[in-house]
Amino acid sequence: MRKVIKAFILTIIFYLFQVCVMQHLKIYGVVGNLLAVNIAVATVSLGKKYAFGASCLSGILLEAMTSSVGGLYVVLYPVFGMLFAQVFADMSDEKREKLLLRQSDNGKKIRGDMNPHFRIPLDAMCIAAGIEAVCLIYVTLSGTDISYVLFARSMVSVLYTGVLALVLMFPARAYLHMYGGRIRRATVEEKQEERA
Length: 196
Prior knowledge:
Layout: H1 2-21, H2 34-46, H3 48-65, H4 72-88, H5 93-103, H6 116-141, H7 148-175, H8 182-195
Helix pairs in contact: 1-2, 1-3, 2-3, 2-4, 2-6, 2-7, 3-4, 4-6, 6-7
């Protein structure tokens, strides 16, 4: 239950920063997507079900407060969040740490394992790129010609999101207690109790 509450609070914080603070941190008139960063952190750190909850909540909050197209964000955030969760959330960090403890005697490396500090920015950039692509398609369908400037702004937004993910993943993961080996300590304590 504590993880659900922490993931909920983290999503609300990222949302508030997205709509209040990011407007003042524009680069060439473009803002990064903090909600994509939040979804990526939830995907890699907590797993797919938390990523789904974070992406649904993000879509609902954006839809309720800032949407000009009815239902767009409610669909986009969960779809892209879960699409890329299939790629980047092979397992949560908790499960990975438990598996590493079990395999420490054998010295095996988990197959397909990639550092979470690489997966989070990649996931955030993929989510942002998907959302930007749909927005570009929507602009095209509404009768506006896609120019080099619109495409370049989308690319800047995706890169900006990646940089934000690189910076913000450390405090977000620390808030979720992903550092410090808490599972490893708990497992060692359990083994010591069994021996006693």
